[in-house]
Specification:
162 residues, mainly alpha, 2 domains, 6 helices, 57% helix, flat
Length: 162
């Protein structure tokens, strides 16, 4: 008799795994990977997200009941899941000068601008001109890309064996 958690259910091993099963495996992987219960709790969420993303990206071959059973038997987390984890330091309430220097600075353009209805006419015209220039630059890049694709398609149609 096979020693796994799903053998008693006699479920087809090719059947797609449910989200609960995937998160159960994520909890198992988190316990294997972590040293403390708090870290295991955080890693459960991380591994769950990684496995759900993996399942969505591989929709032709999703994680199955058989895969879940094999994952529970593992004593080490597969490398394809471990390498997707980005280690982040726990958040602290006080900031040191060193940590403030390492944080990325926010660009001024990303700061939300006032609504058009609250701007002066001159400011609104300047903002509109900037948008129009960006649209023109985008249209030029798009026209260039279209021309390159037309050249490529013409070449492929005349010389398909190349």
């Amino acid at each position: 008799m096979v020693n796994n958690k799903f053998a008693i259910y006699n479920v087809d091993t090719n059947r797609k795994a449910s989200a609960k099963q995937i998160y159960a495996v994520a909890r198992h992987f988190a316990k294997l990977q972590s040293k403390t219960e708090a870290e295991a709790f955080r890693l459960t969420k991380v591994f769950g997200a990684i496995m759900m993303k993996f399942n969505a990206e591989h929709c032709e071959t999703p994680i199955t009941h058989g895969d879940i059973a094999k994952f529970f038997e593992l004593e080490k987390v597969p490398a394809k899941f471990v390498e997707q984890i980005t280690v982040q330091a726990p958040k602290t309430s006080t900031k040191s000068k060193a940590s403030a220097k390492t944080q990325p600075k926010v660009e001024k353009e990303k700061v939300s601008q006032p609504k058009a209805s609250t701007q002066s006419v001159e400011d609104f015209k300047a903002r509109l001109n900037k948008v129009e220039k960006n649209i023109e630059a985008h249209n030029k890049r798009l026209a260039s890309m279209d021309a390159k694709l037309d050249i490529l398609m013409a070449f492929l149609e005349t010389n398909p064996d190349a």
